[in-house]
Specification:
Elements lengths: L8 E7 L6 H11 L4 E6 L6 H7 L3 E4 L5 H14 L7 E6 L10 H8 L5 E6 L9 H14 L11 E4 H7 L8 H11 L4 E6 L10 H20 L13
Parallel strand pairs: 1-2, 1-4, 2-3, 5-7
Antiparallel strand pairs: 4-6, 5-6
Helix pairs in contact: 5-7, 5-8
Length: 240
């Protein structure tokens, strides 16, 4: 892994009710990226996530009511962009990665070396999840709207240069954030890269709560596809 110059990287961490792991996630990122600015987008957690994040050394962006992942991460990104010391690179990740968050240097390295413009992590091992319907639908929406065929269309672990972040803001609402981000980046001519990383997270299972979660994802993915209908990809080509 390459070394990181102070203030060259900002990490934006999405969190909702992650008080049990957020400090470990932040600590792992701080160890992996010395000098990076760590920001937590706390989506109205009611379990003390914001306090735990601040105690761990992160800056927290939190509003009084939930705005969904996309809305809250947009607010966090805009807060970071208002800082006078802007980074060269930005890493997005989820707050439940705990100690495995420090392995995301692979994504930052890929962008810094010029391999791609938007680097996305593929989980090396699948943990939990349903039958793949939501994942497949997101991939279909992306393919229809920009022609890309990602293997990890809804992964929240992503690295990019600052200019790419500006190009994909505001993020699509709620769970549509990553699907919309991929479409917007590819349509803008940026190169997508996917990298297998050994990560751990809190996965939803094949139970009522898990199926409700995935139904909400499907609705948000459909909204992303509808909002981006009729667009064209890089070079003016209409997606197949």
């Amino acid at each position: 892994m390459e070394s990181y110059e102070p203030d060259s990287l900002a990490v934006l961490i999405a969190a909702r009710n992650e008080s049990d792991v957020i400090a470990e996630t932040i600590g792992s990122l701080a160890d992996a990226f010395p000098g990076a600015a760590l920001w937590v987008a706390d989506d109205a957690s009611d379990d003390g996530t914001a306090d735990a994040a601040m105690a761990a050394g992160a800056r927290v962006v939190r509003r009084g009511r939930s705005h969904g992942k996309g809305g809250n991460m947009t607010a966090c990104a805009e807060a970071m962009l208002s800082d006078p010391d802007l980074p060269d690179y930005v890493l997005l990740c989820d707050g439940d990665l705990a100690g495995s968050a420090g392995r995301l240097g692979t994504l930052v390295d890929a962008v810094r070396s010029g391999e791609c413009d938007l680097a996305v992590a593929m989980f090396a091992k699948r943990v939990g999840g349903g039958f793949g319907l939501a994942l497949g639908f997101s991939a279909w929406v992306i393919r229809r709207r920009c022609g890309a065929e990602p293997k990890a269309p809804i992964s929240g672990q992503r690295a990019m240069r600052l200019e790419v972040l500006r190009a994909v803001l505001p993020f699509a609402p709620a769970y549509g954030m990553e699907t919309g981000m991929t479409i917007d980046a590819v349509r803008a001519g940026y190169r997508l890269g996917e990298y297998e990383v050994e990560l751990a997270h809190k996965a939803t299972g094949r139970n009522l709560k898990g199926f409700i979660h995935r139904f909400r994802q499907l609705v948000d993915f459909a909204r992303v596809g509808w909002a981006r209908r009729g667009g064209r990809g890089p070079g003016g080509r209409r997606p197949a």
